[in-house]
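for the recovery benchmark. tokens below, seq after
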């Protein structure tokens, strides 16, 4: 007997909505924000500097520059790497808009390379195929926190003298062969957006071991004005600053850093809980062949940051497609996301660069099937059980084996 879907008038599995994500912000974050508000210094200042230092230590990078988003960090990193008009940057089509948009922002052309079918990270062989004399950098994306194949990608980049920029938005806790993401290429950018593993509401961090690059990024992220210009209204008193180049307004505030300082201290506890959630979900999905989880297991020495829990809808086993499953699960009171639909098939990329379906089959097939389930450390085991129950209900109702009643 199949149960009527909430979408068709049945009773939803959950009486209240389980959100896609809820940030775990506690009394420590609240007290730190209040302390900042009362300190008299609310923009970039001592707490941002402290957060930068603690983040650099966490990642093991020589330099960390706090910015107001990962997008801003990727943008200034490309500018600092000297990428500009006429250049090409190779990146993944299985990513968020930002990774490709920043390449357009600097006047360069994003060139996509298809992904590996399992992890949906960049396929090094596909990257190699896309390298041209115009290629200026490789922008790797550690999709959902799974590290890219960095040995192969680094060898390719080194052979051609290309820098690697890591989009580490999903990858704060990620390890590749025992090494932290953030130092695997020339420069990396992390995200502290509301749904990320460490959040400051909005925010980001750039890390690098290259002192000259770090200096340039720091200057570029605050109007292009001289170092330490953020202190110009501090108790140290006003000092002239110089405009060294036309930079951007990308600095992080101490209010944001107040959240980041405590979020970072809790990062390992959050990670352990998300790992448990992955194990619970994976066990449940062994019995639901209509939806297949993206494999989250990593090779020995690697660590997945477990940023999201995406599943691939198997339309050949169902009487509906991803969007049909998405609508049905939402009606059962689940908050959902899609990470991602292939970027090159968005209207802007199709029109501006002439992309067509058929060029990147792995990313396109995944982009048509992916669906991200609720996934955050404060979720209970019962929450996971209710998600699995809703998925089972929809899968059964729409299964080709049962038939559409
Ligand atoms: C892969 C990836 N890169 C970059 C970003 C941009 O991050 P932010 O919102 O901090 O600019 C995101 C955000 O969701 C992302 O998922």
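predicted aa per position
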């Amino acid at each position: 007997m199949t149960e009527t879907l909430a979408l068709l008038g049945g009773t939803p599995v959950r009486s209240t909505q389980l959100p896609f994500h809820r940030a775990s912000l506690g009394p420590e974050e609240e007290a730190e924000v209040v302390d900042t508000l009362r300190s008299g210094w609310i923009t970039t200042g001592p707490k941002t500097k402290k957060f930068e230092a603690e983040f650099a230590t966490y990642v093991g990078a020589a330099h960390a520059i706090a910015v107001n988003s990962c997008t801003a960090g990727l943008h200034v990193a490309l500018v600092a790497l000297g990428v500009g008009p006429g250049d090409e940057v190779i990146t993944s089509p299985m990513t968020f808009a930002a990774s490709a948009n920043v390449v357009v922002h600097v006047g360069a052309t994003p060139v996509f390379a298809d992904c590996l079918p399992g992890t949906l990270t960049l396929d090094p062989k596909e990257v190699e195929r896309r390298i041209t004399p115009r290629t200026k950098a490789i922008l790797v994306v550690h999709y959902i926190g799974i590290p890219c194949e960095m040995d192969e990608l680094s060898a390719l980049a080194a052979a051609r003298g290309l820098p690697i920029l890591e989009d580490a938005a999903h990858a704060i806790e990620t390890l590749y062969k025992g090494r932290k993401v953030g130092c695997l290429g020339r420069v990396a950018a992390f995200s502290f957006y509301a749904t990320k593993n460490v959040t400051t509401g909005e925010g980001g961090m750039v890390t690098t071991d290259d002192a000259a690059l770090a200096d340039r990024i720091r200057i570029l992220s605050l109007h292009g004005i001289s170092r330490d210009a953020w202190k110009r209204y501090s108790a140290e008193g006003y000092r002239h600053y110089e405009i060294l180049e036309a930079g951007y307004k990308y600095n992080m505030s101490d209010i944001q850093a107040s959240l980041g300082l405590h979020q970072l201290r809790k990062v390992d506890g959050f990670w352990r809980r998300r790992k448990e959630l992955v194990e619970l979900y994976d066990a449940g999905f062994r019995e639901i062949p209509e939806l297949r989880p993206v494999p989250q297991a990593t090779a020995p020495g690697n660590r997945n940051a477990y940023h999201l829990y995406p599943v691939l809808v198997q339309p050949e086993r169902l009487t509906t497609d991803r969007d049909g499953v998405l609508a049905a699960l939402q009606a059962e009171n689940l908050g959902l996301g899609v990470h991602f639909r292939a970027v090159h098939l968005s209207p802007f990329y199709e029109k501006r660069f002439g992309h067509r379906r058929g060029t990147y089959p792995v990313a396109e097939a995944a982009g048509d099937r992916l669906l991200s389930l609720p996934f955050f450390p404060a979720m209970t085991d019962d929450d996971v059980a209710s998600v699995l129950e809703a998925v089972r209900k929809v899968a059964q109702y729409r299964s080709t084996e049962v038939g559409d009643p």
